[in-house]
């Protein structure tokens, strides 16, 4: 860059100006504008504007240290060059006053003139005036005054001869006259026109060449410093890694040692605790034992005493009770005996009355019952007689028509019946040849003179059990029984009275009735069939399920009338558990159709 030679009387020809300031303070913009305008001035000799790295907030530790390093580097580089001055830019709208470190101040001193005031070749340019809100220009001025007068970096520059100028990037926006502001080229020219500061660095008369050499040196030095910095960094990193590794190993070792120590301490502590606990437990146990023994002895003593007292009390009580009982017993005995006697005589009296009354009642009931039965019987006999009479009439009528010989033969049987009925005691007995079952039992008539047939029926079950049913001369149907092959009589050949049982007798049983009997379920069920005097089919049943007694059955109510001469046959069918009865219901004709079951 050229510097105007025509105005050389107040402008330095070999000019190198450092542009410094916070980050974003407008350094690059300033240089751009200045260079654009200064380039058109032919009279200017070479001038160089060097922008230093910016720093947002110089008070922030990290940025400040970074700035320090950069500025220090720059100072070193600039020491070799001829520095005409420093333009320091500051954003007026920034609320803080810049506070660079003492290191920076020292560097400024080195860059600037020696002695006091050392900052005569420094211009502080406040920027961003156009950004102040409308009507706050005065605030900007107050801020500028503050920068100049209050302690701080810019105050330091101001008191050491630095000039304060203002710049507005967009000057058309300014609310006041432009005259109060300076443009970048005018600021540069003003700085160049100021008397040269007596810098510690000697100025080189061969300005232009020197500048180029200085730039090359600057680049080389910068490169060297970069390399050095990289190397330093690398070395630092390696040292840090080694240190970190050493630290890690030390820490691991310390940890391991600590852990081992802790383990041992814990084990010792645990052992101590265990021993202490066992000792305490042993002591406790001993104390408890002693206490228990004491308590036991005390209890025993108390119990013995209580027992003795109790026993004494009991003895006394028993003696009292015994005495009382003795007195009471004699009296009570007498009383009870008397009461019993009275009770017995009352009961006896009552019984006598009851019996008399009961007897009278029973007698009355019996009489009434007898009268009813007699009445019934009379009716039935009347009816039967009428029927018989009818039958007889029919028979007589038939006989009248029958030849004499046949008539005699036909009448023989009825006569025998009449004879039997006329005899009061026909001396009927049964001879039973009872052999062990299942051999058949044969019963034969054994009496004389000839008597009417004695009807009987037999049932048997198992090996040696049988029952014989027959009708005696009074009309009773009797039962003779054989258990385990033994007839219950000493005379095995005859069924005697004592081993017989009259199971049922009704005067309405037809004398000389046919008999049939069936049994099943091992003799637990027995049925006996006979005819009434009206030739009605009747059934008597014996069942272990209904109290092991004989009783009439419902067949009576059916009223099955059979022929007067009909026989009865019965079987029990185990397949369908039914009884099949066979009898003659009408005049016999030998066709199967007349046989009903
Ligand atoms: N309104 C206004 N804007 C400005 C002014 N000065 C600079 N600027 C703007 O501010 C922004 C930052 O300016 P720069 O010149 O880059 O600032 P710098 O100091 O070089 O920044 P670094 O290099 O990052 O430290 C740019 O957009 C400029 O146009 C000013 O006075 N007024
Ligand atoms: Mg910049």
UniProtKB/TrEMBL annotation:
Name the Pfam families for this protein: Fungal_lectin (PF07938)
- Chain segments carrying region Disordered: 430-449
Instruction: State the UniProt keywords alphabetically.
Output: Coiled coil
Coiled-coil features, chain-numbered ranges: 219-257, 285-402
Database matches in InterPro entries: Fungal_lectin, P-loop_NTPase
Q: Does the keyword ATP-binding apply?
A: no
Work out whether the entry's keyword set contains Protease: no
Protein name according to UniProt: Uncharacterized protein
Species source reads Jaapia argillacea MUCL 33604
Q: What is the lineage of its organism?
A: Eukaryota, Fungi, Dikarya, Basidiomycota, Agaricomycotina
């Amino acid at each position: 860059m050229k510097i105007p030679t025509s105005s050389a009387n107040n402008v330095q020809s070999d000019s190198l100006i450092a542009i410094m300031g916070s980050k974003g303070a407008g350094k690059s913009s300033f240089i751009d504008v200045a260079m654009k305008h200064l380039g058109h001035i032919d009279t200017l000799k070479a001038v160089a504007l060097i922008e230093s790295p910016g720093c947002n907030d110089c008070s922030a530790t990290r940025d400040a240290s970074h700035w320090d390093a950069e500025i220090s580097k720059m100072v070193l580089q600039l020491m070799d060059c001829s520095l005409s001055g420093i333009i320091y830019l500051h954003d007026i709208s920034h609320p803080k006053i810049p506070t660079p470190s003492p290191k920076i101040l020292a560097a400024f001193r080195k860059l600037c003139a020696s002695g006091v005031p050392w900052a005569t070749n420094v211009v502080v340019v406040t920027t961003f005036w156009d950004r102040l809100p409308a009507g706050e220009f005065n605030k900007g001025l107050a801020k500028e005054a503050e920068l100049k007068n209050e302690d701080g970096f810019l105050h330091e520059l101001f008191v050491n001869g630095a000039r304060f100028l203002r710049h507005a990037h967009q000057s058309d926006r300014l609310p006041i006259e432009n005259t109060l502001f300076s443009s970048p080229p005018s600021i540069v020219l003003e700085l160049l026109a100021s008397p040269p500061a007596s810098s510690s660095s000697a100025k080189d008369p061969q300005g232009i060449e020197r500048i180029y050499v200085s730039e090359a040196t600057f680049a080389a030095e910068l490169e060297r410093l970069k390399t050095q910095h990289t190397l330093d960094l690398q070395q630092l990193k390696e040292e840090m890694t080694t240190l970190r590794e050493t630290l890690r190993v030390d820490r691991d070792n310390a940890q391991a040692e600590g852990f081992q120590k802790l383990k041992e301490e814990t084990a010792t502590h645990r052992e101590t605790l265990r021993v202490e606990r066992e000792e305490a437990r042993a002591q406790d146990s001993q104390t408890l034992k002693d206490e228990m023994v004491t308590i036991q002895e005390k209890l025993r003593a108390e119990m013995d005493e209580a027992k003795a007292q109790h026993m004494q009390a009991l003895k006394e009580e028993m003696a009292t009770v015994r005495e009382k009982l003795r007195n009471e017993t004699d009296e009570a005995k007498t009383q009870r005996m008397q009461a019993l006697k009275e009770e017995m005589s009352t009961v006896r009296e009552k019984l006598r009355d009851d019996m008399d009354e009961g007897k009278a009642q029973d007698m009355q009931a019996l009489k009434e019952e007898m009268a009813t039965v007699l009445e019934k019987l009379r009716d039935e006999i009347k009816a039967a007689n009428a029927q018989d009479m009818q039958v007889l009439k029919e028979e007589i009528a038939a006989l009248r028509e029958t030849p004499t010989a046949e008539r005699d033969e036909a009448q023989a049987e009825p006569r025998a019946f009449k004879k039997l009925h006329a005899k009061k005691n026909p001396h009927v007995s049964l001879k039973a040849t009872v052999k062990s079952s299942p051999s058949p039992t044969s019963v034969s008539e054994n009496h004389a003179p000839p008597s009417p047939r004695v009807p009987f029926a037999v049932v048997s079950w198992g090996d040696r059990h049988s029952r014989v049913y027959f009708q005696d001369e009074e009309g009773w149907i009797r039962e003779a029984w054989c258990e385990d092959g033994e007839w219950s009589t000493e005379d095995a050949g005859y069924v005697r009275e004592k081993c017989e049982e009259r199971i049922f007798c009704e005067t309405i049983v037809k004398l000389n009735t046919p008999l049939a009997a069936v049994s099943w379920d091992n003799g637990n069920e027995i049925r006996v069939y006979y005819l009434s005097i009206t030739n009605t089919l009747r059934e008597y049943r014996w069942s272990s399920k209904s109290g092991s007694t004989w009783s009439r059955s419902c067949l009576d109510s059916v009223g099955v009338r059979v022929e007067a001469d009909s026989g009865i046959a019965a079987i029990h069918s185990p397949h369908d558990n039914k009884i099949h009865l066979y009898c003659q219901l009408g005049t016999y004709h030998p066709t199967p159709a007349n046989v009903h079951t």
